[in-house]
Write a structure and sequence with these properties.
With 447 residues, this protein is α/β, with parallel strands linked by helices. The protein contains 13 helices and 24 strands. The protein has two domains: 6-24 and 240-445, Alpha-beta prism (UDP-n-acetylglucosamine1-carboxyvinyl-transferase, Chain); 26-237, UDP-n-acetylglucosamine1-carboxyvinyl-transferase, Chain (Alpha-beta prism), CATH 3.65.10.10. The protein has helices spanning 26-38, 52-62, 101-111, 132-140, 175-185, 203-207, 243-255, 274-281, 326-334, 355-365, 397-408, 422-425, 429-435; strands at 7-9, 17-20, 39-46, 67-70, 77-83, 95-96, 117-121, 144-148, 153-159, 167-169, 192-195, 216-218, 221-224, 230-231, 237-238, 260-267, 285-294, 297-305, 339-342, 369-373, 376-380, 389-392, 414-417, 440-441. The structure holds shikimate-3-phosphate (S3P).
Amino acid sequence: MNSGGTLVAGPARQGLQGRVTVSGDKSMSHRSIMLAALAEGVTEIQGFLAGEDNLSTASMFQSMGVTIEFLNPQKTSLRVHGVGLHGLREPERVLDAGNAGTAARLISGILAAQDFHSVLVGDASLHRRPMMRIVAPLRAMGAHIDGRDGGNYLPLAIRGSSLQGMRHEMHVASAQVKSCILLAGLYANGETRVREPRPTRDHTERMLPLFGQAVQRDGDDIVLQPCGHLTAPQDVVHIPADPSSAAFFAVAASLVSGSSVQLTAVGTNPRRDGWRRILQAMQADITLSPAADVGSETVADMRVTASRLQGITVDPADVPDAIDEFPVLFVAAALADGEFILQGAEELRVKESDRIACMVNALRAAGADIEERPDGVRIRGKERLKGGVTVDAQGDHRIAMAMAIAAQCAEQPITITHAAAIATSFPAFVPLAQAVGMNVAMPEAAP
Ligand code: S3P
């Protein structure tokens, strides 16, 4: 990941208008490559997100002998020549997950079961993120993993071994941990069961059956009885537009007066659209027109029209369903009437940055009334932000984009440094934002 890059944003000159199809879903793009690589046969994927994170996943599998053909210059269509569950090759070099927590945590479950040795690294941010949450359960299944600080941090050295299925009760609500264990479970002797403290995104459970591997529920347990192989689906695997990327446009259209923006074919998996429910509870004007399902996922077109937002207290039970959208929801809250309170969201401190501290610093510098709490924030909304400042996105894509949205409602522009990371999840953010009338530019990116 390029850690530089400066965005200059806002204020919006007029209401935002138009129709946007945001890029493909990042979580599903990772999973589609992984399952396709481990399947027997060729899988075609469309709607793939060619962000840096997903390309890291692709290149890790390429370096283990998987052929991936990109079918168009945008790299949104691809063909993965699966090698089967046992066909990966020992990588000659370290595997680099870049900035991608999902890539690192999910691939560890696969690497733990291979007949070879591998070393997993990432960028500076990924090297600060906790890994014991996957290392401990994988070790309990029989994995041999070493790493910094006893295995809590990358680099991880993984010596593949034979794994034993088990029942794991998770302490954190994390789809990455759940998915890592389920992927390891594909190789385990006997069944693997996972129980989550709260439901998290379920793309792995929805996608595995497309590849012929059933995943069942038994009460609150998610159960995988390994069938011994994955099979490339006959149908193309379609990936819907990423709700996490759509959220930036929905908040911007809600806040900038005179706006009306249509977001097409956005994923509406209930484990992903907590941001929409929270925004609607804040009185956002969002109309949904459900469209035909995309593979195993639901989608809808959304029209978002500007409205005066109200602060709310977020129910901690809703936190996992909106975990990636809190930076931009804080922006909505900073410009809403009344008070917004979030608690039970300490996981935000171990994302690509400490998203509580980072957003508190950036929004406060821009003129917001925001108080930092150990597990969340309290925000008292204002009519406008002052802006006229430089804030540091700390190499975190969602902080950079959230502050670009905040700037649309500021009196003066906001300069956002260390913003190049938007390319990890949403390389098309700036042109799409400009297309609906947002005032945002990345001057350094100009030729
Ligand atoms: C993801 C799960 C979430 C989320 C991340 C993507 C996934 O992380 O924050 O951006 O694709 O499984 P946790 O599961 O660790 O909360």
